[in-house]
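B., you asked whether I could sanity-check this one before it goes into the benchmark set. Here's the sequence:
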Amino acid sequence: MITSGEGRTRVWLRVERAGEDVVLILGGGDSPHIGGVVLKVPGEEARTLVHGTHRDLEVLAPLAEGASEVLGTTVVAVGGIHIDRATTEEIRSVVENCQRLVLMMDNSDEES
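And here's what the prediction gave me:
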């Protein structure tokens, strides 16, 4: 598992291989959940599925797109982050922490 950030804005990412493809499971905050799913195939537009009014695609889409580009493979990203009464600063911090996960994932993948 890869983590980024601290406290309420800490996020985590589990990376699973499915043959040459990758499944990313993202969570964090006060209550991790499944708020969306993104499928990114290299050379194609990402496909998304959102659960209700969750806004998790805002971090899942860039995560799947970045991982697909870095790894050159099909990626599915699923998950969600919830922080009770999140401030604007906390939301910004969560987004930044999620952005860091792609680079951290690439580095940890090389070590495996």
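One thing to flag: The mean pLDDT is 92. Otherwise nothing jumped out at me.
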